[in-house]
């Protein structure tokens, strides 16, 4: 069942959020007065160069960091004011996917154990139900359920990211924060994972906060885009609008740096290209131990 917001209005509202870090004797704002809203089922892309504050922003939203200033309302609840216990419960609905899925997976755990882990932590279901759910999740992300007893390191990068996505989906979240989720992957594999994320969004009614330094990737995924520079959102617009009529010089520079293949007629083809690539193109098979890249 799609896990959509119970109440109308934005699923996520960020208000005047700031986060400071020490720099020498001073402190600087890694995130500075950021505000936005994200409606259920939509994708907000956050783009900006490395160091512009994207990860810090996402960490404040999910409360891995406590922001010094500002508020985060999630699914009608003041997320910033939640107690540890309330946070643990509510955080089930907000999950994160990282650039390096291996880093967030316990190397001693099999794929099945890694995906089941959030269910165990939150005491969801009996062992048999959990095993069924793991099976279902593996299929959902385009992995052969026979992969369950292998270890994450036995898989290719794209497959590892699928494992990370399956784990993130285990608790049926409403919001998925993808922080550079495809940045470490080859372009063709990026396209498969992006396509998978789009399919999952349609199927499960997910809401995405999609973060990348790569505007081409963000463009593919986003209904709206927020451009960050030095901790601030310097421009916010619907995706088409941003490309058609960027208001800031900085945004224009980012757009001009997007890789493209020139084509007769002068039209741009943004990379990576998703059309015609099924999200499960090459990934349904048992894990491969070969050293050669398999995708
Ligand atoms: N834990 C931290 N302590 C001190 N400075 C940090 C920390 N995390 C990030 N920063 C700094 O905050 C700024 C924003 O970093 P980050 O949010 O990681 O940017 P991005 O994800 O856009 O690359 C950078 O200048 C970075 O060096
Ligand atoms: Mg980052």
Structure, described:
The chain has one domain (12-270): P-loop containing nucleotide triphosphate hydrolases (Rossmann fold, 3-Layer(aba) Sandwich). With 295 residues, the protein is α/β, with parallel strands linked by helices. It starts with 11 loop residues before the first strand and ends in a 25-residue tail after the last strand. The protein is built from 9 helices and 12 strands. Strands 6-7-8-3-9-10 form a 6-stranded mixed β-sheet, sandwiched between helices. The protein has a 4-stranded antiparallel β-sheet with strand order 2-1-4-5. It has a two-stranded antiparallel sheet with strand order 11-12. It binds adenosine-5'-diphosphate (ADP) and magnesium ion (MG).
Number of contiguous helices: 9
Content-based structural category = alpha/beta
* Terminus-to-terminus distance: 31 Å
Mean of residue pLDDT values:
88
User: Strand order within the widest sheet?
Assistant: 6-7-8-3-9-10
Portion of residues within helices: 25-40%
CA-based shape = globular
Q: What is the name of the CATH class? A: Alpha Beta
The CATH superfamily turns out to be P-loop containing nucleotide triphosphate hydrolases
Query: What is the CATH topology descriptor?
Result: Rossmann fold
The run of helices and strands is EEEHEEHEHHHEHEHEEHHEE
Low-confidence stretches: 261-267, 280-295
Number of strands: 12
Q: What's the structural domain tally?
A: 1
Query: Cα-atom Rg, whole angstroms?
Result: 19 Å
Hetero ligands: adenosine-5'-diphosphate, magnesium ion
| CATH architecture descriptor | 3-Layer(aba) Sandwich
Q: Hey, roughly how much beta strand do the residues contain?
A: 15-25%
Profile the largest sheet. Answer: 6 strands, mixed
């Amino acid at each position: 069942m799609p896990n959509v917001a119970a109440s109308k209005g934005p699923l996520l509202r960020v208000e005047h959020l700031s986060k400071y870090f020490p720099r020498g004797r001073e402190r600087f704002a890694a995130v500075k007065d950021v505000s936005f809203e994200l409606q259920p089922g939509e994708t907000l892309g956050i783009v900006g160069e490395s160091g512009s504050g994207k990860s810090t922003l996402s960490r404040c939203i999910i409360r891995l960091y406590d922001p010094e200033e500002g508020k985060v309302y999630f699914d009608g609840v003041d997320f910033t004011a939640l107690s540890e216990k309330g946070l643990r419960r509510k955080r089930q609905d907000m999950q994160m996917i990282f650039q390096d899925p291996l880093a967030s997976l316990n190397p001693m755990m099999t794929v099945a154990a890694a995906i089941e882990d959030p269910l165990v932590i939150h005491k969801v279901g009996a062992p048999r139900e959990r095993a069924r759910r793991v099976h279902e999740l593996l299929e959902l992300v385009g992995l052969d359920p026979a992969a369950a007893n292998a270890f994450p390191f036995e898989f290719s990068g794209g497959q590892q990211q699928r494992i990370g996505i399956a784990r993130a989906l285990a608790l049926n979240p409403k919001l998925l924060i993808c922080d550079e989720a495809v940045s470490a992957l080859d372009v063709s594999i990026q396209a498969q994972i992006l396509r998978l994320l789009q399919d999952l969004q349609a199927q499960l009614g997910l809401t995405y906060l999609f973060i990348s330094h790569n505007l081409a990737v963000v463009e593919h995924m986003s209904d709206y885009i927020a451009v960050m520079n030095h901790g601030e959102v310097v421009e916010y617009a619907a995706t088409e609008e941003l490309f058609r009529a960027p208001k800031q010089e900085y945004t224009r520079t980012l757009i001009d740096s997007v890789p493209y293949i020139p084509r007769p007629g002068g039209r741009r083809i943004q990379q990576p290209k998703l059309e015609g690539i099924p999200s499960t193109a090459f990934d349904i098979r048992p894990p491969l131990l070969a050293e050669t890249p398999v995708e």
